[in-house]
Amino acid sequence: MHWASWSEFWAMGGYGFYVWGSYGALLLLMLVEIILLVRGHKQTLTRIRRMKNWEQE
Amino acid sequence: MLRFLITVIRRDLLLAARRKGDWLTSQFFFVMVVSMFPLGIGPEPEMLRRIAPGVVWVAALLASLLSLSRLFADDHRDGSLEQMLLSPEPPVLLALGKALAHWLIYGVPLLVIAPVLGLQFGLQADVIGVLMLSLLIGTPVLSLLGSVGAALTLGLRGGGVLLTLLILPLYVPALIFGAGAVDATLAGLGPEANLSLLAAFAMLTLMVAPWVTAAALRISIE
Amino acid sequence: MSEISHLAVRELACARGERTLFSGMNFQLRLGQLLLVQGGNGRGKTSLLRLLCGLAQPLEGEVHWRGQEIGGVREEYHREMAYIGHVNGIKDDLTPLENLRLSAALAGRHLDERTAEQSLIRLGLERCLDLPARVLSFGQRRRVTLAGLMTAGAVLWILDEPLTGLDVHGVALMEGLLRDHVTGGGMVVMTTHQPLSLEGVATVPLQVGPVLQPQED
Amino acid sequence: MSFSIYKYASPMTFYGLAGKMIPWFSWGAAILAGLGLYIAFFMAPTDFQQGEAYRVIFIHVPAAWMSMFIYMVMAFWSAVGLAWNTRLSFMMSRALAPTGALFAFLSLWTGAMWGKPMWGAWWVWDARLTSSLVLFFLYVGIIALWSAIDDRRRGDKAGALLILVGAINVPIIYFSVKWWNTLHQGASVSLMQAPSMAAIMLMGMLVMAIAAWFYSIAVAMVRVRGIILERERQTEWVKELLEKN
Questions:
Q1: Does pLDDT of C27 surpass 80?
Q2: What is the ipTM of this complex?
Q3: Number of neighbours of residue D134 by Cβ within 10 angstroms
Q4: Taking Cα atoms as reference points, which of C99, C103, C96, C102 lies closest to residue C124?
Q5: D188 contacts: CB under 8 Å, gap ≥ 6
Q6: Hey, which of D5, D66, D114, D184 would disulfide with D103, CB 3.0 to 4.6 Å?
Q7: Please, which pLDDT band fits residue C40 given cuts at 50, 70 and 90?
Q8: Is A5 helix (H, G, I), strand (E, B) or coil?
Q9: Residue B15's pLDDT is what?
Q10: Does A28 touch chain D if contact means CB atoms closer than 8 Å?
C-alpha cells in the first residue's frame, strides 16, 4: 500500500487523466455492452412472443 | 480442364470488349485519384517523390475494388453464373478464370498507366521500373482476394461498399510489400526483399483464394 | 426401358429462412418419363428444382443420379443434365449464335456453327442470328435458351416454368421438343402453370404443398 | 455422464447449459478483475521511468490479447461449423464477434491513452497498435457482412468463410506491419517495450486476461441464448418457454 491518501491515488502521479481515461473507458464500454445485451434479450423475447401469437391465430 | 479456364477468360475479355465503357471508367478513376494528391499536398517535387509509391498503390487498390463489385453481379442477374456453376468442370476453375480475367482487364492496364503517373510524380526511370514490377506481382493478389469479396457479397444491397469494407484489411500485406519495394528503391536499399515477400503472398493467395471463392459462390447463389 | 431409376429422391426436406417448405419427399424417375411438379406459389417448386440440380443444399435427405448421391458424381451428373431457371442465362451483349456456342464450350461440348444455326432457325430466330440479344424480346430470348437445350444433348432436363413468355407457336414448339425428348429416351422434370397437351408421354405428377382448388390459384 | 458432443450440440440442451454457465463466469470475471485491479494499483511498484502511467498496461495488453484470441476462437467455431454444418457453432462465432470488436477498440483506445503521456502523441504508428487497428477493421467487416445478409444460413456460411480467410491473413498482417514498422522507424519506438517485466506485472496482466476471458464467455452465452431463441422460434420448447415467463 504505497498510496498515502485517496487524493494521491486519484492523481496517479499526475497521469490520472490517462490512467482513469483508460480504465473508465473499459468500465463504460463493458457496462454499455451488458445493458445492450440485457435489453436485446428482452426485446427478442417480446418479438418472438408477438410472432408466436400472430402465427397462432 | 484448361480449355474451360481459357473459355471463361476469353468470355470475359469478349464481354469487356463489347462494353468498353466500364473498362475506361476504371482506368480514368485510377488516373484521377492519383492526380488529386498533388492538388491536395502541393507540387514540391521532393514531397511528391516520397509519397508516389503509396499513392499509386492505394489508388490501384481502390480501382480494383471499384471494378470487382461487378465481377459476378451481371452474370448472377442474367442467370449465366448458375449455368457456369452447373458445368461439369469444378467451380474452382470458374473462380480462378474470373479472377484472372479481371486481372487481365483491370490489373494489367494499371501497369501501363503507372509509369506515366510515376513521371507525373517525378520518379526516376529505375524507380518506375520497380513500381511496375511491384504492380505486376501485386495486381493478381488484388483480383484474387477481391473475387472472394465479390462472391461473398453477391446480390447484397450496398455490395460495392461492403466489398471494400471486407477486403481492404486483407490487402494490407500487399500494400505494405508493394509500396515498400518502391520505397526501398528510393531509399537506395534495393527492392528484392519486399518483392520476394510480395511474391510469396501472391503465391499463397493464388493457392487459397479460388477455393474460397468457389465455396462462397455456391453459398451465395443458393 | 432400363429398370434402375436414373433420378431418385430420398426423404428430401427443404426450408426457406425459418419456414420448412416440404419434408419427407420420396420419388423416382426413369428414362422416358416426365415429372410434372405442381403446387401453389411459394410452395417450394423452384426450390425443389434447384435442389435437384445441386444449386442448393437440402435441409435433409439426398438426391441420387444413377443410384449415387449427386454430390459424389458431380461431373457425370452435370454432363448429363441441363437446367433452365426463371432467368434465361443469356448475355445481352452477345448474339444468339455466340451465346449458344459459348454455353456449349462452358459445358465442355463442341458445337459447330452449322448445328447452332440450324437449331436457332428451327426455333424461328433466323432473322436475328447476329443481333445482340439485348434487342430480342423475352419470348425470343427464351427460344435462344431452348435452342441451347436442344443442342445440349442432355439426358435429364430440369425446366422451371419453361412456357412463360412463349406465344402460341412457341408453346406448340416446346410441346414438340418435350415429346421428342421423352419418347426418345430422355427424362424431364418441369413446373408449369399453363395447361400442356402431352399425349403419348408418360407424365408423373408430383404435388408440392396442398392441392389447389381452381379458384384459389 | 458421457460428454457426447451431440447431446450438447442441440440448441435446446445448450440453451439450458449456457443459462447455468452465465452466473459462474460472471462472478468469476468479477472476482478475478477485482484481484487484477488490486495487483495493478496496490501491488505493482511505481515505474522509475514512466511513473504511474504504465499501469494502463494492465488493461491494454490483455485487451490486445483478447481481441486476437477471440478472433481465433471464432475461426475455430467457423471451421467446425463449415466442416460438420452444426448450426450451434455458427451461432457461437456470431455471439463472440461484438465482444471481440470491443476488445480490439479498447486496445486502440488504451494504446492512445498510453502513447500520449509517453510519446506526446495520441496515435503512435507502432507495430502492435497498427496491427490491432487492422484487426479491428476485420471485426467491422465480419459484423457488416452478417448484418447485410438476411438469410441466416447464407449469413452463417459466408461469415465463416470470411473469418477463415481473415484468420489466415492475421499472422501475415502482423508480420507485414512489423516489417513495415522496422523499415520506416527502426525498432526504437515501440509501445510494447514496457518496463522490465517484473513477475508481479506479468501476473497482473494474466489475471486481468483471464477475467476478460470469463467476461467474454458470460457475454457470449447471453448473446447465443438470444440467437437460439430467435432461430428456434418455431419449435415447441421455445413456445413452452414463452408461456412460462
A1: yes
A2: 0.88
A3: 21
A4: C96
A5: none
A6: D66
A7: confident
A8: coil
A9: 93
A10: no
pLDDT at D129 over 50: yes
Which of A14, A29, A38 comes nearest D106 by C-beta? Answer: A29
**Could you give phi then psi for residue C127, rounded to 5 degrees?**
-80, -20
Q: Is the pLDDT of residue D45 over 80?
A: no
Averaged pLDDT, D31-52: 83
| Architecture category of domain C1-80+154-217 in CATH | 3-Layer(aba) Sandwich (3.40)
Query: What is the Cα–Cα distance from A36 to C174, expressed in whole angstroms?
Result: 59
Residue A35 near chain D (CB below 8 Å): no
Q: Does B120 touch chain D (CB under 8 A)?
A: no
Residue type, D238: V
User: So what's the pLDDT on residue D161?
Assistant: 96
Cell of B121: 510524380
Per-residue pLDDT of C46-68, as tens digits, reads 899 999 999 988 888 999 998 88
Are the CB atoms for D221 and D25 separated by under 8 Å?
yes
Q: So what's the pLDDT on residue D52?
A: 79
DSSP string, chain D: ----HHHHHSHHHHHHHHHHHHHHHHHHHHHHHHHHHHIIIIISPPBTTTBTGGGGHHHHHHHHHHHHHHHHHHHHHHHHHHHH--HHHHHHHHHHHHHHHHHHHHHHHHHHHHHHHHHS-S----HHHHHHHHHHHHHHHHHHHHHH--SHHHHHHHHHHHHHHHHHHHHHHHHHHHHHHHHHHTTS--TT-PSP--HHHHHHHHHHHHHHHHHHHHHHHHHHHHHHHHHTTTSHHHHHHHHH-
Q: Exposed, middle or buried, B185 (CB in 10 Å: 0-12/13-18/19+)?
A: buried
- Give the pLDDT band of residue D188 (cuts 50, 70, 90): very low
Q: What is the pLDDT of residue D148?
A: 92
Contacts of B153 in chain D (CB under 8 A): 145, 148
User: What size, in residues, is chain C?
Assistant: 217
D87 touches C: beta carbon within 8 Å: no
- How far is Cα B175 from Cα A1, in angstroms, rounded to an integer? 50
* Chain D interface includes A5 (CB < 8 A): no
In this prediction the pTM is 0.90
The residue ranges of every structural domain in chain C are 1-80+154-217, 91-152
The single-letter code of the amino acid at C157 is: W
Banded pLDDT at C213 (limits 50, 70, 90) = low
Which residues, given as ranges, of chain B have pLDDT below 50?
none
pLDDT for position D87: 86
Q: What whole-number distance in Å separates Cα of residue B219 and Cα of residue B135?
A: 32
Tell me if D151 and C17 make a contact (CB, 8 A cut-off).
yes
**The predicted structure's pLDDT at residue C211:** 67
Strand partners, C189: C35, C158
Rounded Cα distance, D119 and D112, in Å: 10
Predicted confidence (pLDDT) at residue C126 exceeds the cutoff of 50: yes
Burial class (CB in 10 A: 0-12, 13-18, 19+), B168: buried
| Interchain CB contact of B215 with C (< 8 Å) | no
Decide: residue B202, CB within 10 A, 0-12 exposed, 13-18 middle, 19+ buried: buried
- Contact residues on chain C for B86, CB-CB shorter than 8 A: 53-55, 78, 81, 83, 107
Taking each helix axis as running N to C, give the angle between helix D236-244 and helix A16-56, from 0 to 180 degrees, rounded to the nearest 10. 110
As a whole number of angstroms, the distance between CA D193 and CA B36 comes to 39
Show residues of chain B in contact with D138, CB under 8 Å. 169
Residue C58 C-alpha, separation from nearest chain D C-alpha, in angstroms = 12
Strand order in the sheet with C7-16: C19-29, C7-16, C60-65, C68-69
Distance CA B214, CA B91 (A): 5
